[in-house]
Amino acid sequence: MAQDKGKRPEEVSDPDIVDDIKDTQRVGKDTGHSPFIGFAAGICSGWTKLVVGHPFDTIKTRLQCTPTGTFNGAWDCFTKTISKEGPRALYKGASVPAVSWGITDSILMGSLHNYRAILLRHGFAERTPKNDAERLSLLGHSVAGLFAGWTNASIAHPTEVIKCKLQLQLVQPAHVPKQFSGPFDVVRQTVAEQGITGMWKGLGASFIYRSCFAAMFGGFEIFNRLFKSFDGTRYEMSTELANFLAGGMASNMYWFTALPLDNVKNRIMVDSIKDPRYKGVFDAYRQVWRETYNPSKGFSWNSIARVKNFYKGFVPVVLRAFPTNAAALAVWEGVMRWSNAKL
Q1: Which residues contact 105 (CB under 8 A, 6 or more apart)?
Q2: 262-297 pLDDT, tens per residue?
Q3: pLDDT at 1 exceeding the cut of 60
Q4: Is 182 in contact with 167 (CB distance < 8 Å)?
Q5: pTM of the prediction?
Q6: Which one of 54, 174, 241, 251 has the minimum C-beta count within 10 Å?
Q7: Of 26, 34, 198, 225, which is closest to residue 129 (Cα–Cα)?
Q8: Which UniProt keywords apply (predicted)?
Q9: What CA–CA distance (Å, rounded) separates 44 from 239?
Q10: What is the pLDDT of residues 309-319, one digit of tens each?
Q11: Domains in the chain, CATH or no CATH each
């Protein structure tokens, strides 16, 4: 190989060596950082979500999982929760998310970033229209979101079970003890009655639900590109503002597709330990669909009413989703830019 000394990579005759050199150069160009930086940035976004979003999440879970008629909408649920339990009740169950959201968002966003890097190197690259630079395609962003959602579901599901069971507990009269005294008691009772697999009850529904991250992160990239196209016009905005708005809008796309799946997932997770109501994911879907039926009404009325069953908690979800995810994604993108790790 002495005759090849000093030549550029594309002039080296051995194709295997050429491929290795080009791949190494591309990896350095595309990442140029530790693959763990995305996980560290995810911790920051997770804590942001906790502070901004947990009160909305509490209201959503109660609307979804309490018997029909308990609350007359999101505002009624909010006022009754405050009047009966005080403002701290909005953060009921937050002790687990305080740790778990940092961990789960670290897993979600860290795996997202690494999946993006992998897909960029394996057939999902495209050229930017202005400078012909290489970037990940919109399909690649969606596929990365899908894989990240599945990764997150595999690890985070037990903490979701604990959170939902604690959020659902309403304050009862003093002589009636609570079912759970805290996070560890949820684990103790669940494992005692159902075994360790009880902590993964509803995992199938969680996988289906978290598949919607494909829509969220695909949408996030679409909106970011849209706002980038405003550069040089009167509507030009800073990168930080674009990330904030794109994150909020993408999160609303996500919840429009994911809320029916989230509704079913939560019902399965908070189902009675000793006397479960649902036999599985599809049985839960069937029961939610059949909850509302009025024989005196026509087909259209009953169909709309049944669809609404899957969208219980829609108002607090929409109110929560935009500021929570806008702030969280803006923080994550900011940390990634600061560390020079943005793809």
Answers
A1: 42, 43, 45, 46, 49, 328
A2: 888 878 877 777 777 888 778 888 888 887 777 778
A3: no
A4: no
A5: 0.72
A6: 174
A7: 225
A8: Membrane, Mitochondrion, Repeat, Transmembrane, Transmembrane helix, Transport
A9: 18
A10: 888 878 878 88
A11: 34-338 (1.50.40.10)
